[in-house]
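for the recovery benchmark. tokens below, seq after
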């Protein structure tokens, strides 16, 4: 009876962690990654599309991203989209491909990026705790309406806390990995 509440909460918490992973994958560390640009919205024949749906994105060297559009007519639109994005990178166009050389970030910039990653991780922790709070409220409602016994609710709350702790540990592991990547460039 209380399992659906726990299952829904586990899914919601997992989504918060996955969102964090996607979000910080786009944070530039000085190393080239396709995740940095693949979701940039490009206006392609009047429609906004992610860059990875209009071009092949390659990382031939650690500090270079090469974007090879499937349609050469889309190169100017791709360049505009990259410049408009908040990545602070400048594309180089040779008529057939777009190259993006990533500069080595300064120590100050690395500290800013690490701070930004910590902030995003805290936002994910808050989302996880909010999911826990919502589930606890639902468990209390079940208990008040006599749909569940006090022991069942207490047991479910213990499981809920275990879920929360495990998900926060995942967030902390993701944070530690990304911070290390940023700070040891």
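predicted aa per position
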């Amino acid at each position: 009876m209380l399992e659906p509440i726990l299952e829904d909460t586990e899914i919601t918490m997992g989504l918060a962690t996955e969102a964090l992973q996607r979000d910080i994958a786009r944070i530039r560390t000085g190393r080239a990654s396709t995740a940095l640009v693949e979701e940039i919205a490009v206006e392609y024949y009047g429609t906004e599309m992610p860059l990875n749906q209009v071009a092949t994105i390659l990382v031939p060297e650690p500090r270079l991203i090469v974007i090879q559009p499937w349609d050469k007519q889309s190169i100017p639109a791709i360049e505009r989209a990259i410049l408009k994005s908040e990545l602070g990178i400048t594309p180089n166009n040779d008529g057939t491909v777009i190259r993006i050389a990533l500069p080595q970030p300064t120590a100050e910039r690395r500290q800013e990026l690490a701070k930004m990653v910590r902030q995003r991780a805290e936002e994910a922790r808050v989302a996880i705790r909010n999911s826990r709070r919502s589930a606890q409220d639902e468990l209390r409602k079940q208990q008040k309406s006599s749909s569940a016994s006090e022991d069942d609710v207490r047991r479910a709350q213990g499981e809920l806390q275990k879920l929360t702790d495990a998900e926060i540990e995942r967030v902390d592991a993701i944070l530690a990995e990304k911070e290390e990547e940023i700070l040891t460039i």
